Amino acid sequence: PATCPFPPAMPALLNLLDVSLAFGGPAVIDHVNFQIEPGERVCLVGRNGAGKSTLMKVIMGEMKPDSGDVF
Fold first, then answer.
1. Which of 5, 1, 10, 16 has its CA nearest to residue 51?
2. H-type helices in the chain, by residue range?
3. pLDDT truncated to tens, each residue of the chain (71 aa)?
4. Residues 6+ away with beta carbon under 8 Å from 50
5. How far apart are alpha carbons 25 and 12 in whole angstroms?
């Protein structure tokens, strides 16, 4: 049987909980929830202007969301 290289008690590497951000108009990031676990591979794709760079700036702490938590 295959074994997981990470013990089950490992906490998530990244958590976004109900994160929202707007720039005076419609929300660019609207109530986003997700987590990244150790060993996961993640890809962020979307159309131009969809908010990919803004989401990455929020994750890196360069921008503060209007609401929600990043940890």
1. 16
2. 52-60
3. 666 666 666 899 999 999 999 999 999 999 999 999 999 999 999 999 999 999 999 999 999 999 999 99
4. none
5. 32
